Amino acid sequence: MDRRHFLAAGAAATASTLLPAAAEAAASDALFQDVNFLSDGQALTPREYAALLDKAVQAGNFAPDYYSRGGAIEALEATFAARLGKQAAIFLPTGTLANQLAVRTLAGHNHRVLVQAESHLYNDSGDAAQALSGLTLLPLAPGRAAFTLDEAKEWAERTAGGRVESRIGVLSVESPVRRRQHEFVPFDELVRLSEWAKSQGIRRHLDGARLFNLPQHTGRSVNEYAALFDTVYVSLWKHFNGASGAILAGDARVIDGLYHARRQFGGGLPYAWPLVAGVEGFLHDYEAQYARAWEAADQVIATLEASGRFTARKLENGTSLFLLQARGIAPAALAERAQKHGVLLPRLPDEASEIPLQVNTSLLRKPPDAIARAFLGP
Ligand SMILES: Cc1ncc(COP(=O)(O)O)c(C=O)c1O
């Protein structure tokens, strides 16, 4: 074997122990090398994405959808419904639309919706629930990840005591909470909220954009979470590296027929398959890969702290994020140094005292000591 082929074979062997199965097949010297501490997933480059897409469609039984129905989209919906323990699931082009269709469908004529003040639904949808679906969002627990059962009950009492009759139709919970540094809502609190809501005839929706990270941090399965809610949304582009997309899962009587509303909202994409053709490849062993990514992160943290130049801090109820304090180097200079070694960090202003770093499966692309060296420099 000549030197070039020997090196390539070595790189492939390393990659095969480090990369999720879908990426493994398409790995080459130039692709799938960067580690990023910036995003929920692998932040695939256009060439990496095209390589994975090519690989996915080469599977003998790959079939396109038409207007987001049938073929690969229907197969993906069935896979997620089974993984989440729900009767049915529907593909939607964005999580924003998944939340919107979920709460409007569940609410029916009961227009009030309990939400976290820090949720995507309340902050990042441009009042879509109010403007497009005539719902009234009641934002609870500003500045905190979770609201308690007592806070929910307080709003239920206020609603019941109004001069004009109105009802809370939906309890919507996001977990992990992106705006609270990906903190999770404690499982026991979810159980209390869910049981109370059910007893009151209030329907329950989970914004689980990042649901598949929770088992690693709470010991509760995605099924256990999903069982507490009527509908569950999971992002397809965050952990599973699609180009966009969301799954909304629930009972067949809620989900079946929802494709009409999807199209009504302009979300019936004529060909959705290129957005998600690689998703199943990342989904099937995601939880194991994410656990390995945290093992790698812990090794990196240990090496950095042993140097005496870095301190790491994890959050109570934290999931995918930790905070790093660097001594003797400004955050932007650190980011520049790391980038030269193929490790991407946020570029923060000099006065930032802690750098938020995201753990994702791109950490499996390099050995932990190589990642640590990118921080430590020559
Ligand atoms: C918690 C949460 N919910 C919903 C969304 C919306 O997803 P999309 O960007 O696919 O519309 C996001 C997106 O960042 C999110 O973080």
Average residue pLDDT: 93
Strand content: 5-15%
Relevant CATH superfamily of the largest domain: Type I PLP-dependent aspartate aminotransferase-like (Major domain)
- Count of helices? 18
Order of helices and strands: HHEHHEHEHHEHEHEHHEEHHHHHEEHEEH
CATH fold group of the largest domain: Aspartate Aminotransferase, domain 2
How many strand units? 12
Q: Tell me, what is the CATH class of the largest domain?
A: Alpha Beta
Biggest sheet descriptor: 7 strands, mixed
User: Which small molecules are bound?
Assistant: pyridoxal-5'-phosphate
- Low-confidence stretches are 1-19
Helix content, binned percent: 40-55%
CATH architecture of the largest domain: 3-Layer(aba) Sandwich
- How far apart, in Å, are the first and last alpha carbons? 32 Å
Side-by-side strand order of the widest sheet = 2-8-7-6-5-3-4
Rg over alpha carbons: 22 Å
Number of domains: 2
Q: So what's the overall shape?
A: globular
